[in-house]
Specification:
27% helix
Length: 102
């Protein structure tokens, strides 16, 4: 979250918390767009960070749709989180445009 604020990405991306981590989205009407989110979570047992971008087919976000909704994911060490997030932005032009205002 600190990197998003420091890099100025919060002007185009909307970070919010969920029960199990950080949700980031390109906002829809000034709010988190729950149909199109990047979830960042820390696995305390494995000591790794999981990043999962999901595009849900419906507003209900049913558990049955979770696997097919996952469009991008990676796991990294906490020290690699910023690089992994920047890689995500580079791989997804719509997110990059929103974050970097390009």
């Amino acid at each position: 979250m600190e990197h998003i604020l420091d890099a100025g990405y919060s002007k185009g991306l909307f970070p919010g918390t969920s029960a199990y981590g950080l949700l980031i989205s390109v906002p829809l009407e000034g709010k988190v767009n729950y149909k199109h989110t990047l979830h960042v979570g820390y696995d305390e047992l494995a000591h790794v960070v999981n990043l999962n971008m999901k595009i849900w087919p419906t507003e209900q976000r049913s558990p049955e749709d979770s696997k097919s909704a996952t469009k991008w994911s990676t796991t990294c060490q906490p020290s690699e989180l910023i690089d992994s997030f920047e890689h995500f932005l580079n791989e997804h032009p719509d997110w990059s445009r929103a974050a970097r205002n390009t």
